Structure formats: C-alpha cells, structure tokens
C-alpha cells in the first residue's frame, strides 16, 4: 500500500492528512503552538504510527520550512487548489478563509491553477477577526451558527479589528442584541469576501475552505452576496493538507 502524508502548518491550526492508495484514512488537527515545528513533528509521528512503510511527507503552509525531515515542500496555493478538487472534483474556484489570511484561487476545467489573490496584510475578514468579536460578546466561533440562526443582521460599519471591537462594545451598550451584532459582523465579512472573489471573475462551482468554512451562516451570506452557490465540505479545513498529500502521492507513483 502506498502512503502519503500532507501537513499544512498554518498560523492558527496545524492540519495533517494520511492518504493510503489515494484514500483519506487519518486526520490530524491541533492549534498551532508558539513553536510550530512541534505540531508538525507531532502530526508526522501520529499519522505514520503503525504503518508498515514510511510515507512520503509533503509540507505546506507558513511553517513548511521549519523542519528538515520532509520529502517535499510546496506553496499553499497549489495545495489548496488540488485539495479542493479532491474534495469536489468540479470545483472552479476556491475561497479559503483561515486564521490570519484569506485567498481566492481560480481553476480551469482540468483543475489547473489559473490565477489567485491573497490577503495576508489585514486580519479583517479572517478567522482571527471572527474570534476576537465572538470573544468580545462572550461566545465562541463554534456557537455562531446556533446563535445567529434566523437573526436579522445589524449593520456594522467598521471592518478594522480594533475599530470593529470598539463598535461592537458601543452597540452592545446601546442595547443591540448580541446575536444581531454577530450576524452583522458575519454579513460584513461575507460582503467583503464576495468583493474579494469578484476581482477574479470566478465561475461556479465554488468551494469554501479553511476554518471559517465551518460557519454555515457565513456560507449562506456569502452565497447571497455572490449570487451563486457556495459549496462546503466536512473536510474543507484540511484542503491544504489534502493537496500536499496528493502531490506526495503523485511523486511517489512516478518513482
């Protein structure tokens, strides 16, 4: 059996995938610690434990150059495109929103990379932004869907993390319901993301990946602003790691 491991060392989370003959058989997910190499090593040891042969290891993400035992290192843009096509073969565009950045990837009919945009200069519109606002209102990102279900969003004017936090506190003091504020923040993020996607004139089907893709409220609002369907997948947060594992599988097959 041919084994390939892909590890995506992100700024917020470290994700790992084991492919066995092209099938996902193990997953690994932990918050990225102060020393990301520690999580990479843990992912590698956990995913390969008990295997009869040593897997091919491909690293991607911010921390991909922090260890010296990988067989290959690949940029995250290539990996996210491949991972998206693995999860949803008809995908023509990927919107990935992680902890500290967001990116849009455009693919052709064969799944090849056509173009991409990346925003890693501003935390607004990222998982970190959503986490800060949620904490300010005494809740967590994991609870957002249940809190904001069927809630009319309140208008949010600022998308700067610092100013938005101040605005949220002011709105709460003025008596605006926290669920309406949260829905408003998600709606503002979705609108910002839709404008970001529109810069590439992306075609459907679109796959929403990254940690924020677990928020179904965000996905629905993104669909509304884009005017086209946005697909999600239970393994969407692992797209980068999946793509890395696919690359490793291809390299091993050619040998």
TrEMBL record:
It comes from the Bacteria. Keywords: Iron, Iron-sulfur, Metal-binding. Its cofactor is [4Fe-4S] cluster. SUPFAM superfamilies: Actin-like ATPase domain. InterPro entries: ATPase_BadF (IPR002731), ATPase_NBD (IPR043129), CoA_E_activase_dom (IPR008275), Dehydratase_Activator_Redct (IPR051805). GO terms for molecular function: iron-sulfur cluster binding; metal ion binding. PANTHER family: BIFUNCTIONAL PROTEIN [INCLUDES 2-HYDROXYACYL-COA DEHYDRATASE (N-TER) AND ITS ACTIVATOR DOMAIN (C_TERM) (PTHR32329:SF2), BIFUNCTIONAL PROTEIN [INCLUDES 2-HYDROXYACYL-COA DEHYDRATASE (N-TER) AND ITS ACTIVATOR DOMAIN (C_TERM)-RELATED (PTHR32329). This is Activator of (R)-hydroxyglutaryl-CoA dehydratase. It comes from Escherichia coli. The gene is yjiL.
């Amino acid at each position: 059996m041919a084994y390939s491991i892909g590890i995506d060392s992100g700024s917020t989370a470290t994700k790992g995938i084991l492919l066995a003959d092209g099938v996902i058989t193990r997953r690994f997910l932990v918050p990225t610690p102060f020393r990301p190499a520690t999580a990479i090593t843990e992912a590698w040891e956990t995913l390969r434990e008990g295997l009869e042969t040593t897997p091919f290891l491909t690293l991607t993400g911010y921390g991909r150059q922090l260890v010296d035992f990988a067989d290959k290192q690949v940029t995250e843009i290539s990996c996210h495109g491949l991972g998206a096509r693995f999860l949803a073969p008809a995908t023509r565009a990927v919107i990935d929103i992680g902890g500290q950045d967001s990116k849009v990837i455009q693919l052709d009919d064969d799944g090849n990379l056509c173009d991409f945009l990346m925003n890693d200069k501003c935390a607004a519109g990222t998982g970190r932004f959503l986490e800060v606002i949620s904490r300010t209102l005494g809740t967590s990102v994991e609870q957002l869907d249940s809190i904001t279900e069927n809630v009319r969003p309140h208008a949010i004017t600022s998308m700067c993390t610092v100013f938005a936090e101040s605005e949220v506190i002011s709105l709460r003091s003025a008596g605006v319901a926290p669920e309406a504020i949260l829905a408003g923040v998600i709606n503002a993020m979705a609108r910002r993301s839709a404008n970001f996607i529109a810069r590439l004139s992306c075609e459907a089907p679109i796959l929403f990946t990254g940690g924020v893709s677990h928020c179904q409220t965000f996905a629905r609002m993104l669909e509304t602003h884009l005017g086209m369907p946005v697909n999600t997948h239970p393994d969407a947060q692992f797209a980068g790691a999946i793509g890395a594992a696919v690359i490793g599988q291809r390299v091993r097959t050619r040998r």
